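Design a sequence for this backbone.
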């Protein structure tokens, strides 16, 4: 039986403590009761129908992305059996019709897994954030995303940004792995994924240790926690997380910032850079790649002396402050290079 590590928990944590002490440390924490005062979370405590009714008063009428996995998928949004496609359908639907369907399925014994995926709260439910404020993001342009569905499983994946995820309905179980376990999680393709980010090929509920033997090492470093309405979890950038929605009505509001999933994310993103590096270095020998690792460690990861510390400031270029014109010139350079 797997013994999971515990994630540090807080019941009182203000925005200054969070951004000054927690976020720079880049390790997960749980904030119990973070959103317990929100009418959104309190409406679910009354009943799932009250939750749906509460959301309905804000609905703008626009359609948003929904996904549906058949009962044969066992609630898991993932690849199909031979990994030639995904095992769920994606489409656009009105939120009110989706929520009616969600309630309709509550009493079914056999039912599909359905989910509304990452809708902008401001777009689809204008006024919701004003009714459910948090001083953590009041003065920023970060717009949270809303995820609503029934019982479902999102396989182990990572986000390209820091993430504060708040459960507002139902219960969710999070299993986390640090970035150092990436190789032991057997990540799938970079460019063919169920939902945008690479996902582990291991089913953590039924791991095949013959095919994925190193996953045992990942499990030894795994964290697990269950959250209820009002609880939140900070998941740092590139921490792998496996998410299980445990009730027939579940909802989560999440805030992404400081990375490729955040508003106004930088271009190219780090994942773009990884793809370009794979393209540029694919034919090198192991010794050659190891030599390049030394340069990356020096210039990018700054494992030793700061490379900008001994170079005159007027020659820092990419090592220093960048003007918009200089960034544009660098991008133009790479556009031309990639077209060759």
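Sequence:
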């Amino acid at each position: 039986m797997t013994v999971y590590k515990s994630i540090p928990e807080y019941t009182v944590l203000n925005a200054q403590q969070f951004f000054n002490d927690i976020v720079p440390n880049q390790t997960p924490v749980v904030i119990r009761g973070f959103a317990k005062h929100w009418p959104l979370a309190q409406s679910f405590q009354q009943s799932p129908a009250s939750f749906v009714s509460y959301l309905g008063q804000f609905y703008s009428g626009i359609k948003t992305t929904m996904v549906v996995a058949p009962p044969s998928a066992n609630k898991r949004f993932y690849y199909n059996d031979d990994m030639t496609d995904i095992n769920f359908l994606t489409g656009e639907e009105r939120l009110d019709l989706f929520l009616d369907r969600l309630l309709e399925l509550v009493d079914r014994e056999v039912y599909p897994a359905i989910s509304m995926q990452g809708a902008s709260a401001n777009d689809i439910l204008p006024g919701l954030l004003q009714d459910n404020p948090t001083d953590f993001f009041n003065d920023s342009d970060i717009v949270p995303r809303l995820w609503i569905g029934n019982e479902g499983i999102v396989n182990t994946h990572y986000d390209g940004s820091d993430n504060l995820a708040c459960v507002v309905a139902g219960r969710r179980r999070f299993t986390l792995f640090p970035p150092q376990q990436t190789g032991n999680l057997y990540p799938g393709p970079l460019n063919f994924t169920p939902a945008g980010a690479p996902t582990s090929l291991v089913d953590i509920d039924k791991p095949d240790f013959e095919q994925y033997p190193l996953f045992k090492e990942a499990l030894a470093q795994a964290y697990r926690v269950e959250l209820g309405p009002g609880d939140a979890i900070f998941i740092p950038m590139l921490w792998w997380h496996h998410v299980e929605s445990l009730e027939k009505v579940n909802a989560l509001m999440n805030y992404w910032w400081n990375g490729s999933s955040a508003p106004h994310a930088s271009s190219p993103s780090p994942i773009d850079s990884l793809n370009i590096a794979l393209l540029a270095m694919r034919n090198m020998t192991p010794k050659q790649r190891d030599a390049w690792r030394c340069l990356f460690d020096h210039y990018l990861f700054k494992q030793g002396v700061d490379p900008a510390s001994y170079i005159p400031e007027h020659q820092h270029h990419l090592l220093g402050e960048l003007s918009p014109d200089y960034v544009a010139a660098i991008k133009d350079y790479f556009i031309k290079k990639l077209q060759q």
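Residues 38 and 133 are 8 Å apart (CA to CA).
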